[in-house]
Amino acid sequence: MAAKSLFPKTWRLASVSQETPDLDISALDYVLQGDAELQAFQTALAQAEAQNDGMKQAEYHAKLEEIDAYTAPARAAKLLNGLGFFTRRTYPPRQILLRRLAYAPQPCPSADLSC
Questions:
Q1: What's CA 97's distance to the chain center, in Å?
Q2: pLDDT tens per residue across span 7-48
Q3: N- to C-terminal Cα distance for the chain?
Q4: What CA–CA distance (Å, rounded) separates 94 from 100?
Q5: Which of 2, 29, 31, 80 could be cross-linked to 25 through a Cys-Cys bond (beta carbons 3.0 to 4.6 Å apart)?
Q6: What is the pTM of this model?
Q7: Phi-psi region of 108 (alpha: psi -120 to 50; beta: other; left: phi over 0)
Q8: CB 87 within 8 Å of CB 77
């Protein structure tokens, strides 16, 4: 008998691979690229802007609002934080580095976690 999960219809399930390819983008951008709906609306909005189509621009801004796209970076950062990624204060707040926290059997005395 298969297990059945119940959750609100507005929830969307997502998954993130444990290993990511070696890319020249931040982990945050990598996660955001995984949201196909967000990417589709952002691409459509960019095309509408390039064509100077105000009606389409308004339509895509409304669609982005519907999917809560303007909080997507914060939600992606929260997801990455839960997975053990970290941010560095010396970088812009949105920049999340593709470096995992090291799990050592004992506490690491070094502030940069390089032990």
A1: 12
A2: 787 777 766 666 667 778 888 888 899 899 999 999 999 999
A3: 47
A4: 17
A5: 29
A6: 0.58
A7: beta
A8: yes
